[in-house]
């Protein structure tokens, strides 16, 4: 370990910054947050720094560097773009026994600034001993994405409730168990999703329950959209709640990698519908959700795409609500949006398409569709669950007057590494779909915009 990470209380302590450019400004923003007294030595200041000076938040010496400017400082930062000046600052500070940082120059520095994840009062500092600031920033981004944005609020909330909890649970082991449950349970989940009122109610209920020593735990369900396939398209909230769940019920379309983001010890139940095999009926899925939640567990229901787009999320939410189970819905990127992005097909496009419709032509619903409405030009129609209905779709659209030359595309396994994009026309679509031996899942997109597909891997079988 070449450097010891420490947290320094800089309130009202003097920090001298040499250099009033953009580099100095960045450091000064942090120093201001830490409420340090700041003296900037620089003939010129950036507009932001000048604004801080005018507002009395820092002192400005509009001079070139000279060593006596460091007198009285606890820390010194050299942020000029002149190596000779930075060297002089470093030497002068060391001679006075003041800790110095030369920005991006570990050799001339006594201390270095870490990359920071700030969820005050929780702060995480990341350093690479000056070897790669870029790596430190990347790690910071990764940690940022793991930590809920409202984590600081959670810490402050817990601190407000410390007294009341201690009054109800004077014995330490009981209190520890209570706080464990606090951070893993409904109160934290509600706070992290911005539901402060719900959190207060759950907190009070939790305390009442603890007082009654009944220990009855309330389960809950997260209806999570897992996106179209690429695990990087998972939302941050989905990852957070997935990390909390005791039980995960997942669909066929959810990838292994995404499932791997759940807690290792969580029970994982496949309720996926494999084409050609027996489905787990929706009623059975509802039963499983209720069963586990009523046992007091946190249940993640992971669905492909978005739970509320051809995902039966509404039915599950209804069942859970009726049973009084707290439920959080987390949106996911629906396949239509994922396929559009990964195939370079804009769903709307000025002068080409002003409307986009998500439909399914499967089962009985197919015959009830407003085919006349779907057969108009200058719109985009995205067909879900319709790979087996392509002959029928083509026939309906033609019957309602859509031209054989009208562009269409099939996007198979959108956003997966083996995605295929086939662009064609209405007239050639059925034959192409048969020849391509489409794998599940596939989307059919009909509209002029499909001619704009720009992806290099696009297999353009045109009028084949
Ligand atoms: N709730 C999901 C849709 C479930 S219905 C969502 O919002 O995306 C299942 C249908 O979605 C599939 O038959 C297919 O048409 C489409 N689909 C899902 N993932 C897909 C993908 N990665 N590529 C292409 N189509 C996909």
Summarize the structure.
By secondary structure, the protein is an alpha/beta fold. It has helices at 22-33, 47-54, 83-95, 133-146, 151-168, 172-184, 186-192, 196-211, 236-244, 256-259, 282-294, 313-322, 335-343, 365-368, 371-374, 390-399, 426-436; strands spanning 14-18, 37-41, 59-61, 75-78, 99-102, 115-119, 122-126, 220-225, 247-250, 267-270, 298-303, 327-330, 356-360, 380-384, 407-412, 420-425, 442-446, 459-460.
- Distinct ligands, ions and cofactors found in the model: S-adenosyl-L-homocysteine
Distance between the termini: 64 Å
Helix segment count?
A: 17
- Looking at the structure, the CATH topology of the largest domain is Methyltransferase, Cobalt-precorrin-4 Transmethylase, Domain 2
Please give the order of strands in the largest beta sheet: 13-14-17-15-16-18
Biggest sheet overview:
6 strands, mixed
CATH homologous superfamily classification of the largest domain:
Tetrapyrrole methylase, C-terminal domain
